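User: Reviewer 2 asked us to show a designed sequence for the structure in our supplementary figure. I'm pasting the structure tokens here. Could you produce the per-position amino acids so we can include them in the response letter?
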């Protein structure tokens, strides 16, 4: 009996170690840095056809961020409850409008928001309150948040997506964007995107 208990205890320890190793592999301790690739994260394809078309996605159920049809993708990690995110929302809206109003940029640079710990209901409240036009995604279980390094909010990551589907992080920083025009100029410089800002 004592031998069986000993074997079961060893088995339990091994199982716990495997679970902990799996969880640590799924979570990052730091956000992705410039030059790295974005950690693998899956989001639900938007039900809203305008958002689906904006991202260039098919009607599948899920997608990975580098599958977005764009040269540069800007990701904002936000929370409905974050006062800095609330204060910065008009600046991010200005950035979106600036991109969409310039024919040399529209379709090449796209923005998404991921609500860390926010449900669909909470994300919708944020979207309506701040009149956000670009797609926002709930991350109720913190799955994406953990993969990206459990960052504070707002946190911005920008990806440069190559024609072959590969990508790299060109910007990764905590804090709001403050001035949309300066932030856009910085991303154009970092991405090497050769466009005429008409």
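Assistant: Here is a per-position design you can include in the supplement:
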């Amino acid at each position: 009996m004592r031998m069986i208990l000993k074997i079961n205890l060893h088995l339990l320890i091994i199982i716990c170690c495997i679970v902990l190793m799996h969880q640590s592999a799924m979570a990052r301790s730091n956000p992705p840095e410039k030059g790295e690739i974005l950690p693998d994260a899956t989001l639900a394809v938007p039900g809203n056809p305008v958002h689906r078309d904006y991202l260039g996605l098919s009607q599948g159920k899920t997608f990975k961020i580098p599958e977005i049809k764009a040269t540069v993708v800007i990701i904002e990690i936000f929370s409905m409850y974050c006062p800095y995110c609330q204060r910065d929302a008009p600046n991010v809206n200005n950035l979106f409008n600036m991109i969409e109003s310039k024919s040399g940029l529209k379709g090449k640079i796209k923005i998404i928001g991921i609500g860390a710990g926010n449900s669909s209901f909470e994300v919708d409240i944020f979207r309506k309150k701040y009149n956000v036009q670009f797609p926002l995604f709930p991350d109720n279980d913190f799955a994406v948040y953990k993969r990206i390094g459990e960052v504070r909010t707002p946190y911005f990551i920008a990806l440069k997506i190559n024609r072959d589907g590969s990508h790299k992080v060109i910007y990764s920083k905590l804090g709001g964007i403050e001035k949309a025009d300066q932030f856009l100029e910085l991303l154009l410089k970092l991405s090497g995107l050769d466009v005429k800002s008409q």
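For the response letter, you might also mention the following. The CA atoms of residues 76 and 186 lie 16 Å apart. The beta strands are 42-44, 62-64, 72-78, 109-116, 136-139, 155-161, 167-174.
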